[in-house]
Amino acid sequence: MAILGTLLKRGIRLRESLEQEYSSPLELQKQELKKLLITASKTQMAEKYGFKAILSQFPKRGDDFYKAFSNNVPIYDYDKIYAEWWHKLQEGEGNVTWPKAIKYFALSSGTSGSASKYIPITKEMVKAIRRTGVRQILTLSKYDLPSKLFNKGILMLGGSTDLEFNGTYFAGDLSGITAGKLPIWFQRFYKPGQEIARNKNWGEKLEKIVENAPKWDIGIIVGVPAWLQILIEKIIERYELDTIHDIWPDLTIFVHGGVSFEPYKKGFEKLLAKPLIYLETYLASEGFLAFQALPDRSSMRLVLNNGIFYEFVPFNGRYFDEDSELRSGVQPLKIDEVEEGVDYAILISTCAGAWRYMIGDVIRFVSIAECEIVITGRTKHFLSLCGEHLSVDNMNKAVKMAEDEMNIHIREFTVLGVPHGTLFAHRWFIGTDDEVDRDQLCAVIDQNLKVLNDDYVTERKHALKEVSLEVLPSAVFYDWLREQGKEGGQHKFPRVLKGPRMEAWLEFLEKQ
């Protein structure tokens, strides 16, 4: 088992995983926050918000450490932390929110909020991402896998490793930054290789991968589902194959993240000769938060001891207004205060100098004892025009149910909330290349949502007066991403469009 053997020979052990498995989640998080505060204790932010005074509370029992932290340090979203602190980092200033100057920035996928977010990436964060990645690789020992798999290639479909440099810092996709810093021992497994990975033209990159596909023996693929499906379809078409296993017979594992895989699964599996093992990851531009740790689970284990301190805000009307903005004066919860089955927006403080930063994702604990979570959506991607409280999780499940019922494959979709006279309406746009009755599909999805969401049922009788649906070729969704400069890599089509991005989408459709 070349990969596992190499990791173990190089002294990478299960210590961190065992530590999390047998330690108190709160104690792990307390120690993680302490490390972060100590490391950043000489920064501008530490001076303004009294990190040393906060640290003085850690020897005490109880919640004093957290009370000091949450009372002294404000909650940030991207716009607020950028305006106050991170703009200094882009100007080359050091010791702002983290020691020294920041040389790398990850450009977020821009599925909500600002179109181009520059997220600082430190050497400590790169190491943390690598350590968590190793922990996930080591979980493969829990599967009944053939030894030969661990000698196969790993195809990682991500952003360009040829980063933009303006004389002060480098910027690009997180996948491009981390792929450019892969350890030497990993190079023998890594595909498409550094030369192809540097290519900034997404179309050319895909063509190069297709061209080289017969030369590689791939066992594991890693990437965003939509783009990997497009790539595999291109390979099958080029070489006139029945399935991708005709060219990569030992392809066994698909590591994915960023969006729910459920809407893609039906179409993806048509490209296979045998089932794959699907491993979900929660790797955001801000850090590697969680990964699927055990077979046959759809949940992921939150990583509590690797450079991230978490806080949780119940995602409901008490804590958030109708525009999904955090209300003033709310008190988040620590890891020991959360409950199963409740949706929470996450705040993170990280080894890249994010502090009490609202990442924008909404999660739900399915097991408190094991810190297992599922992602249920984005704070900005919930639709609640009139109290329907429709989550991305609801939407994904409704679409999957419709696929199964109508025997179709839906590759992409997005939903708009719009006025309808003095009341409201939802406009669905469905991307499929199958023949489908639009009105029937609309009725099926509408009915599925009524089954999944009680609030939706209520509002469909009152303020949510209309649900309409338009069927589009799936290529239209990817053409729009290309026009927006969001093609490939980590970029995903937003499940809900609001504001300027909604207007841009509607204007784009008018030109089609």
SSE layout:
Layout: H1 2-9, H2 15-22, H3 25-39, H4 44-49, H5 51-55, H6 64-72, H7 78-90, E1 104-107, E2 118-121, H8 123-138, E3 153-156, E4 164-165, E5 170-172, H9 174-179, E6 190-191, H10 194-197, H11 202-212, E7 218-223, H12 225-238, E8 253-257, H13 262-268, E9 277-284, E10 287-291, E11 300-302, E12 308-314, E13 343-350, E14 357-367, E15 372-378, H14 392-406, E16 412-420, E17 423-431, H15 438-452, H16 454-460, E18 464-472, H17 474-483, E19 496-497, H18 499-510
Any key phrases for this structure?
512 residues; alpha/beta; GMP Synthetase, Chain A, domain 3; eleven-stranded mixed sheet; 18 helices; globular; GH3_C; GH3; GH3_M; GH3 auxin-responsive promoter
Query: What's the overall average pLDDT, rounded?
Result: 89
How many DSSP-defined strands?
A: 19
Give me the CATH fold name of the domain at 392-510.
GMP Synthetase, Chain A, domain 3
Instruction: Please state roughly what percent of the residues sit in beta strands, choosing from under 5%, 5-15%, 15-25%, 25-35%, 35-45% or over 45%.
Output: 15-25%
Strand order of the largest sheet: 6-3-7-8-9-10-11-15-14-13-12
Q: Which architecture name of the domain at 392-510 does CATH use?
A: 2-Layer Sandwich
- Report the C-alpha radius of gyration, rounded: 23 Å
For the record, what CATH class of the domain at 392-510 applies?
Answer: Alpha Beta
User: Segments where pLDDT lies below 50 for 5+ residues?
Assistant: 8-13, 110-114
The end-to-end distance, rounded to whole angstroms, is: 51 Å
Counting DSSP H or I runs of 4 or more residues, the number of helices is 18
The secondary structure category is alpha/beta
Helix content: 25-40%
Domain GH3 middle: 303-368
Protein name: GH3 auxin-responsive promoter
Pfam family, one: GH3_C
Domain GH3 C-terminal: 394-498
